[in-house]
């Protein structure tokens, strides 16, 4: 495929964020809904890990669905990746914990926890 063709270029004007009504009504959907609640109500949901007044949604606007504000859509496809600031290749759980320890001034979530999975 040729670089720069319409098939492999992200078009922010054509992108549509997923909506909550598209979340399935099964165990995956339950996990997604729990994750959304943790994301939007971070300090209420995880006070031991995010003790301040900042939630994930303070940086990832519109619950992580705003294209120009650190959207989460497709994030699993972008990790693991090299982070220049840390000088290491990091996976998704490490990146989430990076936000918890730096941006939220909190503690790392256990990587094997239900909260991290959700």
List the helices and strands and how they pair.
Elements (H helix, E strand, L loop, with lengths): L26 H14 L1 H4 L15 H4 L10 H4 L2 E3 L4 E3 L1 H12 L10 H4 L1
Antiparallel strand pairs: 1-2
Describe this structure in words.
- The protein is mainly alpha-helical and 118 residues long.
- The protein has helices at residues 27-40, 42-45, 61-64, 75-78, 92-103, 114-117; strands at residues 81-83, 88-90.
- It has a two-stranded antiparallel sheet with strand order 1-2.
- A hairpin with a 4-residue loop joins β1 (81-83) and β2 (88-90).
- The mean pLDDT is 88.
Number of DSSP E strands? 2
From the N-terminal CA to the C-terminal CA, the straight-line distance is 35 Å
**How many helical stretches?**
6
Order of helices and strands: HHHHEEHH
Strand order of the largest sheet: 1-2
Which percent range describes the beta-strand content? 5-15%
């Amino acid at each position: 495929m040729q670089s720069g063709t319409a098939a492999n270029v992200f078009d922010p004007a054509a992108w549509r964020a997923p909506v909550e009504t598209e979340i399935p009504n099964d165990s995956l959907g339950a996990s997604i809904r729990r994750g959304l609640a943790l994301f939007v109500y971070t300090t209420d949901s995880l006070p031991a890990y995010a003790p301040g007044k900042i939630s994930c949604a303070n940086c990832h606007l519109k619950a992580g669905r705003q294209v120009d504000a650190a959207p989460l859509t497709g994030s699993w496809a972008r990790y693991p990746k090299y982070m220049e600031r840390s000088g290491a290749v990091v996976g998704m759980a490490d990146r989430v914990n990076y936000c918890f320890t730096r941006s939220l001034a909190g503690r790392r979530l256990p990587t094997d926890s239900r909260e991290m999975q959700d």
